[in-house]
Structure formats: structure tokens, C-alpha cells
Amino acid sequence: MTKKDFYSKAEFFTPDEIFDIQKQRFINILNIIKNTKFSNFYQQKILQHNQNKLTLDNVIAKFNNCNDKADFYNLFNQLIPFTTKQDLRENYPDKLCCFDKKNYVRLHCSSGTTGNPTAIFYTKADLDKWADLMARSLFVAGVRPDDVFQNMSGYGLFTGGLGIHQGAEKLGCLTIPAGAGNSKRQIKLLQDFGVTVIHILPSYALHIAEIISEYKKHQFSNLRIAIVGAEPYSEESRQRIQNALGVKVFNNFGLSEMNGPGVGIECQQQNGIHIWEDSFIAEIINPQTCEILPNGEIGELVLTTLTREGMPILRYRTRDLTKILGNDCPCGRNHLRIDRILGRSDDMFIVRGVNIFPMQIENILMNFQQISNNYVIMLQTNPQSNLDDLHIKVEIKNEFFSEDIRQLQNLQKAIESALHDEILVRPIIELVQHNSLPKSDGKVKRVIDLRQK
């Protein structure tokens, strides 16, 4: 690849150029935070973090006077506090917004786990920058303006659908907003419009691959690239998708708190995800001690927005576990590469692209008087569809475990419906007799992951 083959010159910034723009943009973000009249969250948080000894003005002055890269990142670590998902929930719906509401044109929400969701607000400038980053990411993966792009991601409050869509349009692709599910329709769109690029969940890609295997291969010969993300998947799964669909699969990374997709992507080398350091500062920390970890050590990914003016977020603890692979890459880009996401530092699990916490499930189950205190969550790969299934075994109190099949079926459907409304995935509910599930004298293991890795 030559340096002329790029979407943005920022792709090929030198390490010094990356540092210079990070410093400039971070100071700009601090000034937005300092001058806002609509949110005092970071003003107070930074003051408290520095034991009331340094005001935001003092902090900005220190960064302005720092010209050494190592010193800058040491200051960053010392003076800037972490932000957590709990911070976002406690300041729901709009207490982190830096502007009047009339300045915002969109918001996205994640599902709430114990009440409040997390809401992210975007100005028009924020959306333009996000679309530009997503277009850059797609270009790096080999997508070009003359491609026909089928987006098989869900549209709505989640960021995946619209985020990918606006990037593909920005790049100039003919973009098909196919949405999630309805495999027959997806296949027809692939055939009728000569689709060349798809964005798809890895589990759904395996399912689609099985269906396509029943057709003649030449009917999908135009398909060449799959952009895959939103749920963890193994290198073995990538190879299966590539072999079955005859495409190259590229790992795309993002999260709602950092806009959504477009935070980083694999280049043609497929050797790690390039994080766009002109728009984000990335760190890896020890999840327990919060100590900064060196390259190559697995820890929790922490990210800071550098270009989102409407709702900047500083040192956000993503809970995603990964490691930094380095900056050098045969593609010529110097933006740091991280490994694929290896898991979570908390107990969240992902089913069909949806983030789910065990407590969400427990909160719903315990609202049913018929249910005992014991249950187990089993995550399994359906051998027919290759999609993940959420299987929940629930103990029923003796007085409700009736021989009336219809009564138990109605209860089963009611539980399934209530859980689907909360977690947006329809579970498989199995009602079992009281005291039939294993018990533990120690910490209860509620989640058993039996999915194929």
C-alpha cells in the first residue's frame, strides 16, 4: 500500500504529529469543559481528583506548558480522573452535555442495567466527525466509493446501525439499510443488488453462510468484504466466515460512549485494530489497581474523546480487556494497534450483539412470585443456526409447579416476554422443580458459558 492510498492524511501521521494533535485537541476539550455553563461534572471531578489544589485553569496551564510526550501522558495519568458507566448513569439524562439542548441533533442510548441507561448526545459537528471516522475506517478495510454496502445491523437507539450507515454514505457507497434479521430478505438483497460489502454480527455471519451454502456460489461472487463487530468472536470464527462467504473479514471496534463504531478497525494486514489516535487517547490499565500497563500486557481499555464537542468523555473505563500490540504496522500507519477484545472486566455478557448483565435478568425473574430464588443462565451456540442462544433454567416454587401444562406454558411465555422487553433478546426459558438446580455454599455461579469459542 502506498501513502497515496488513503481516505484521510491523518491515517499516516507520524508519532510526533499524532502527539501534537492529541495535545492540541485535548486542551481544546478541557477549554470546552471549563467554559460550559450547562455541566459542572468534570469541573468538580477534576478539582476533587486533585484534592482541591488545582483548578481546571491550573490543569490546562500545565498541559499547555508541557512539550515532552512522556511528560504529557504522565500528567494525563496524574491530573485527569477516570469516568465510569456509573458516572454516566448518575448524570442521566443530560448532565454531561456542554451546550444548550437546541445545539444537539441526535442522541443514542444504551440499555439500562439497574434503572437508568446511558445517553450520548451529538451536535451536527459531532455527527460529521463521526461519519468521517467511520468512512476512514471502511476505506482502510478496503471499501471504496463504488461498492454496494449492505448494513445488516439493527437501527434505532443503538449506535451500530446509523453509525455504520452514515460512514458508508460519506464514503460514497450505495448503502442498503437492510437492518437485522429476516435472512430470506437479506439473501434476496445480496443477490438482486450485487452487494460487495456487508456489515454483520459474527454469529449472524455464520448463520447467513450456512444459508448461502445452499445456493450456487456465482450468485454471491460480487461479495468481497465483511465488516464485523459488536460481539466478541475468535480467529477461528473469522476463518470460518471467510472460507464460507469467500470474503475478507475485518474487525471493527467502537462503543456508544465514544460515539459508536469507528473508534478503530483492522487494516488489510488483519493484525490488530488501529485506534484513531487523532480522535481518541487510548490507555490500558490494571482493572484492580488502575496502574498503566505496558504494551503487550492484557488489561482494561480506557478511552478519551478528543473531537466530540457536545459531550466529551475523559478516561472512560470501557471494561473491555485487550492489550496494545504496538504502533508499527506494515500498512505504514502509526496509530496504535490493539488486540481483538478478549473479554470483559465485569460480568457482562453479549448475546447477538446485545450487552446483557445477569442482574437485569434477576430483577425480572424476582418479580414473578411463582419463581424460587435459584436459577442458572446458560449461553449456548445453536448447532443449527450458529447463533448464540440464551437459555435460562428457573426453579418454580412447589405450590406453583402444577400438572396443568397450559398454566406452566403461560408462565413460561410471560417470563420470556418480560425478559425480552428488558434485554431485547428472546430467551429460552425452562421451568424446573424447586431444589433441582445445584446449590453452592460459596459464591453462586449464575452464568455458564458453553458457546463455541
Annotate the secondary structure layout.
Elements: H1 15-35, H2 41-49, H3 56-64, H4 69-79, H5 85-90, E1 104-109, E2 119-123, H6 124-140, E3 148-151, H7 159-171, E4 174-176, H8 183-192, E5 197-200, H9 202-212, E6 225-228, H10 235-245, E7 248-255, E8 260-266, E9 273-275, E10 280-285, E11 299-305, E12 316-322, E13 324-326, E14 337-338, E15 343-344, E16 349-351, E17 354-356, H11 358-365, E18 371-381, E19 388-396, H12 405-423, E20 428-433, E21 447-449
Parallel strand pairs: 3-4, 3-5, 5-6, 6-7, 18-21, 19-20
Antiparallel strand pairs: 1-2, 7-8, 8-9, 9-14, 10-11, 11-12, 12-15, 13-14, 16-17, 18-19
Helix pairs in contact: 1-3, 6-7, 9-10, 11-12
